[in-house]
Amino acid sequence: MITFCTLFSGSSGNAAYLETDAGAILIDCGMSCKQILDSLIDAKLEPSRLRAVVITHEHSDHIRGVGPMARKLGLTVCATEGTWAGMEHTVGTIPAHQRMRIDPGESFFLAGMEVASFAIPHDANEPVGYRFFLPRASIAVATDLGHFAPGVQAAVTGADLVLLESNHDPDKLRQNPHYPATLKNRILGKKGHLSNESGAQAAVQLAATGTRHLLLGHLSSENNDPDLAYRTSHAALTNAGAVVGRDVTLQVAGRYQTGYLYRMA
Ligand SMILES: [Zn+2]
Ligand SMILES: [Zn+2]
Fold first, then answer.
1. 145: CA distance to ligand 1 center in Å?
2. What are the 10-residue block averages of pLDDT along the chain, 265 residues in total?
3. CATH for 2-264?
4. Residue ranges of the domains in the chain?
5. Residues 6 or more apart from 87 whose CB is under 8 A from it?
6. What residues have their beta carbon closer than 5 A to ion ligand 1?
7. What is the pTM for the complete model shown?
8. Phi and psi dihedrals of 230, rounded to 5?
9. How many Å lie between the centroid of ligand 2 and the Cα of residue 241?
10. Ligand 2 centroid, distance to 31 Cα (angstroms)
């Protein structure tokens, strides 16, 4: 049995959980160790099943709890060389045998599955997304994307389930009086974050090429809301002739709570 869910998703912190018969992994660890353990227990998931955490990039909303989680549970931590360099000063001591270095584009095995990393366009040292190949399905995580680059599209196309960024509404962002212009430009840039509209276009492409479950994530707390993200993708899918609920499921990952639990035989 395969179980996948997000524990936290959004600019405030990210972590997702993927379990196979051989063990479980976390994808990012962007909340405190206690918050992550509490959320696993709330979702009736077993922290002792965890074997590893794969990191997408060194921004704090993805690594906040990595050091304490790795030490407490003896987890292998997997990240690119650039990500290791970027998070070295925040994760504390992680023994050499728990450190795994990968190159973007490299595939490796963890918890009984093949994991393929792929480069993503984002303003971090050496950021990656991941696709997990399970016996009868595959799951991809593609957030923190300035744009849905051809390399990302190629890496995630055909995945049964995609956690896809739907970060912001560009108008809300532009009108936000609390964000300086430099930050707005960063988010809107080619190495920033995917807007609702860009996420929706990616969702249409994915649904047309075999994806059956779309989970929108990494929503901005100030420049988005879950209803708006959902409606934008729903409208684009409907316009493209896909029936949500029949051809593809569409969910929005919760910011602070475990969302929908995907179970696959
Ligand atoms: Zn980031
Ligand atoms: Zn992020």
1. 8
2. 95 96 97 97 95 98 98 98 97 96 97 96 98 95 97 98 97 95 95 98 98 97 96 98 97 89 86
3. 3.60.15.10
4. 2-264
5. 55, 58, 63, 66, 79
6. 59, 144
7. 0.97
8. -65, -50
9. 31
10. 12
